[in-house]
């Protein structure tokens, strides 16, 4: 049996095109021309003697052979990238790098970090915050803690930690707090609501769950990130909306109140990591996170 492989450049071009779903995006990522990628794809198909793509509208669709090669080549390149990253670091005991949104990190994770260090003293954890572009496939990231809805990506191992529950919160310092705290949920329809661009559907989804027409909502001050919106709510600047874990400490301390409770959404707070990077530390962390969430 021949051990000859196709040209590496052809495999790289294919893997990028299959992953990104676009020859143009693959060319941009590989820093080559569109034509160069197309030529490499043709070289690969000729070498293998099978078609890897078929045209679908203005784009490309993977054939069955293409899907098989994509899955195998993606795993192979990812393993190479990870190994090279580990060799570059020059250390076997690298920290476990966990990514999450800055809001989740600041409002939920950091207040519990001391307990995690006490419960899992051997876990060297490095926390990496980001907003909007969180991707568990990002180089240098071992896992991602995120609110997301199923179905999960096929290449991800996912630990479901808790169902997302979301609801409005308001500070006793808010000027209209006394009028609102015993009012029905539809009283918020005329209230200038604090909102965030990172969760634009939060208020409309909540409104629908409470038999309120989303178009009846009135929006007040907007913020780029959830963390800033919740700080504004604590300061008494208006009514905000957030996942329950992110306001748990404020509710216990009386800085915020949730007069209308929390509603479950289709989303889960979950720990994601690529299947190819199965790590016992991830399972250990997931078990701790699940237990910690149950305490709230």
UniProtKB/TrEMBL annotation:
Q: Which UniProt keywords apply?
A: DNA-binding, Transcription, Transcription regulation
Q: Which GO terms describe its biological process?
A: DNA-templated transcription
Top-level taxon: Bacteria
Q: What molecular function terms (GO) are annotated for this protein?
A: DNA-binding transcription factor activity; sequence-specific DNA binding
Q: Which SUPFAM superfamilies match?
A: Periplasmic binding protein-like II (SSF53850), Winged helix' DNA-binding domain (SSF46785)
The HTH lysR-type domain sits at 6-63
**InterPro entries recorded:** LysR-type_TF_proteobact-type, LysR_HTH_N, LysR_subst-bd, TrpI_PBP2, WH-like_DNA-bd_sf, WH_DNA-bd_sf
Q: Please state which protein family the record places this protein in.
A: Belongs to the LysR transcriptional regulatory family.
Protein's name in the database: DNA-binding transcriptional regulator, LysR family
Q: Which organism is it from?
A: Pseudomonas deceptionensis
Q: What is the lineage of its organism?
A: Bacteria, Pseudomonadati, Pseudomonadota, Gammaproteobacteria, Pseudomonadales
